[in-house]
Structures are given as structure tokens and as C-alpha cells.
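Researcher: Sequence recovery benchmark, item below. Answer with residues only.
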């Protein structure tokens, strides 16, 4: 009998996260002999943003890889009723595929898809396993970001649902060792789940995309971006929420004040003009920064043009379960990373791998000290290779992510 997994994802197919993370993991999971794979996504403005031809082309392209793609419309507002509606639509669709396609593993990426999977599992008499790919502390992320009240009714309701999901799921993925220790502590819930398979799988990167990035690519990109002779500090990702916009801008300003050759290179998907205006406000001239967006495939080349990489993320409770993809990409490009402590397992990059520098206090003195320490790391022989080894050991798609996912699947299929 063949096995069939349905990956439940509450994002649209075109989202960078789906392209770089979800599909990459499905391709790795599919290496299990005889395993069929389907993907369900939720598409915002589906009929307006997708033509029938585009849908068919995407389905054919994924089908050629052995992945069946299904899509349902995503509903945004009103927020809670829309999410509840989508959840039940997803659950009913999953139940349909269990019956029609013989799906026997529901792979749910984070809490809402896990609820879809749990409901679908309850609605069928077949033996279906639910893999709860937790990713992070979803309720706490919303309270830490200020979207929900910290002691509000919605938070407590979601925590009750989370407890039930932990009970009914058959296996788990979590991003960090810290997150595992917290979520599966030896309390009543953790003890019940101690015999269930759990894998710690951080956000991984396909290092093949960095293979062709060498010194000639660096020279070409620096010439293209007019960076010859500049000291380039790069940041990739969002601003706002738990991403510490003010502190990162202060860091850029301190670097520029200390070193006139300092250049701020920022790759972000939204509000580029707003970030550019803030840089001008703190004294950056037009020729001293670039704020732009890039596709996932372009990131390795942009990183090749940089000298130092930056990541400040608020060290709140939920971030103990966080694994920022940008860190893996920075290291894969051979860059020293300046970060703040208390985020996921990243402190080990400072204390064990010695490829990152930690800023404990957000002051100009500490920023300049971090830059000095990062430059000392860069001066080490073969430091770029040291960064790449660290990235490979911790974040490699094939040797870390793929192997652990397949091990978890095989454990579920054996039970």
C-alpha cells in the first residue's frame, strides 16, 4: 500500500516562504520510496490574481515533480470569523482527499492548518496520522507583536486549542532546542507527548543556490551597485513588530558616523520608501544606502556584495522558538553576523561556532564594539569557510532538514 501526505499550508503558493521552505521540504520528504505528496494552499484574491492558464501551468509544473497542488480562497476579514471559515473549509477538503486519494499523513504547518488536520482526522474512520509542524509559539507571537491582548480571551482560547492539538497530534516538528524544552517540558502535556516522535528542524537553506557565488560574482555585484571601496552592511527581511527597526537604524547610523565608507544595503519586501526616508532622516545621503526588494533566487548575489550582516529581533518569549532564515543565508554567504542574544538557538553561533557577534545593549558604544569584533572575525584565515561550515552543520536543507523530516515520517508510518 502506498503512502500519501497532504501538506496543509495557510499561505499562498507564490509567497517566498512557500517557495523556499514549504516546497523544498516537500521535495525532501518525497524521497521516501512510494510516498505521494499533495499541497493545499490558501490564495488571497484567488480569482483576481490567478488566471486559469496560470493555475494549470503551476499544477502541471508541480505535478511533474510528483506534487499535486490544490488551492482554496483565503478570507481575511473579519479576522476571526474568516479564519474559522477557512479552517472548516480546509478540514472538509482534507477529509475529501483522505477518502478519495488515500491520504494517511496530514502535515500541518503551524496551528491553523493543524486545527484543519485535527478536525479532518476526527471526521474520518481511516487511520490518519497528524504531524504538527509547530514552527513557533503562535499565540505568544501575536501577543508579543501587540496584535492580541496578553491576557485576553482570544489568547486563552487559542492556548486551549493548542493544548488539544498537542494531545491529538501524532508527531511534532519545532524549530529550536529552546522551544522544544519549553513546549514539551515534563508537565502533564509534555509527559503525554514524550513517547511521540519530535524533531528539532530549524529553517533550512538550499546551499546549492550559493554554489556559483564566488569572488567574481562579488566584484560584479559591487560594481553593478556602485559599492566598490564601500564597507557594506546588509539586512534582509521585514521591519516592525519584533524586528527592531529603530535599533537597526541606530546601528547603521553609528557605523556611518564611525566609517564614512559604510553603506546600508537593505532587502525588504514592503515599505522600501518608508525605510529609505528614515535613513535620510538619520543622515544618510542617497549614495550611502540602497533599499530594495529581491526574489529568493537573487539573495545569494546580493549577500555576496556585503561585508557584514545584521539581525536584531526582540528577545521576547515567543522568539525562543524562532529560527530566522536570514541567519542561515548570511552564514551560507560567508558573512559574520551581528545579532542580539536570546533569539532561538542563535547564541550558539556566538559561543560555539564563533561566526557571530552579540550586541547585548543597544548603544553606540556597543554597536561600534560589535563592528570591531566582526572585523576581527573577518580577518581570520578561511573565516568565510568557517561560516559556511557552521551553516551546513546547522541549516542544510539536505543533511539536516531533509534527513530529519524523513526520519520523522518513517517513524509515523511505522507506528
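Model:
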Amino acid at each position: 500500500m502506498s503512502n500519501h501526505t497532504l501538506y496543509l499550508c495557510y499561505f499562498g503558493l507564490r509567497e517566498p516562504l512557500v517557495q523556499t521552505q514549504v516546497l523544498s521540504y516537500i521535495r525532501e520528504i518525497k524521497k521516501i520510496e512510494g510516498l505521494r505528496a499533495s499541497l493545499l494552499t490558501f490564495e488571497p484574491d484567488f480569482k483576481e490574481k490567478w488566471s486559469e492558464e496560470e493555475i494549470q501551468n503551476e499544477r502541471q509544473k508541480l505535478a511533474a515533480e510528483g506534487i499535486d497542488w490544490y488551492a482554496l480562497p483565503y478570507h481575511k476579514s473579519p479576522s476571526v470569523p474568516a479564519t474559522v471559515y477557512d479552517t472548516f473549509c480546509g478540514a472538509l477538503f482534507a477529509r475529501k482527499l483522505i477518502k478519495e486519494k488515500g491520504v494517511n499523513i496530514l502535515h500541518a504547518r503551524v496551528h491553523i492548518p493543524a486545527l484543519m488536520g485535527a478536525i479532518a482526522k476526527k471526521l474520518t474512520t481511516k487511520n490518519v496520522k497528524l504531524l504538527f509542524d509547530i514552527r513557533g509559539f503562535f499565540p505568544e507571537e501575536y501577543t508579543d507583536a501587540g496584535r492580541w491582548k496578553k491576557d485576553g480571551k482570544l489568547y486563552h482560547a487559542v492556548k486551549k486549542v493548542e493544548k488539544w492539538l498537542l494531545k491529538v497530534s501524532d508527531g511534532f516538528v519545532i524549530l529550536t532546542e529552546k522551544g522544544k524544552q519549553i513546549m514539551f517540558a515534563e508537565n502533564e502535556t509534555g509527559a503525554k507527548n514524550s513517547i511521540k516522535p519530535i524533531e528539532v528542524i530549524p529553517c533550512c537553506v538550499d546551499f546549492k543556490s550559493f554554489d556559483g557565488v564566488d569572488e567574481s560574482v562579488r566584484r560584479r555585484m559591487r560594481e553593478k551597485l556602485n559599492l566598490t571601496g564601500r564597507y557594506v552592511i546588509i539586512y534582509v527581511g521585514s521591519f516592525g513588530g519584533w524586528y527592531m527597526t529603530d535599533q537597526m537604524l541606530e546601528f547603521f547610523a553609528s557605523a556611518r558616523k564611525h566609517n564614512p565608507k559604510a553603506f546600508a544595503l537593505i532587502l525588504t519586501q514592503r515599505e522600501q520608501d518608508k525605510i529609505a526616508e528614515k535613513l535620510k532622516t538619520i543622515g544618510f545621503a542617497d549614495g550611502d544606502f540602497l533599499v530594495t526588494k529581491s526574489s529568493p533566487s537573487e539573495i545569494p548575489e546580493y549577500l555576496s556584495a556585503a561585508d557584514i550582516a545584521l539581525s536584531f529581533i526582540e528577545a521576547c518569549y515567543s522568539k525562543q522558538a524562532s529560527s530566522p532564515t536570514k541567519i542561515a543565508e548570511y552564514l551560507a554567504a560567508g558573512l559574520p553576523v551581528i545579532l542580539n542574544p536570546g533569539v532561538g538557538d542563535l547564541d550558539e553561533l556566538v559561543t560555539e561556532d564563533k561566526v557571530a557577534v552579540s550586541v547585548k545593549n543597544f548603544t553606540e558604544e556597543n554597536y561600534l564594539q560589535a563592528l570591531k569584533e566582526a572585523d576581527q572575525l573577518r580577518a581570520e584565515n578561511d573565516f568565510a569557510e568557517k561560516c559556511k561550515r557552521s551553516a551546513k552543520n546547522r541549516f542544510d536543507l539536505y543533511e539536516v532538514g531533509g534527513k530529519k523530516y524523513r526520519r520523522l515520517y518513517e517513524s509515523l508510518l511505522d507506528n
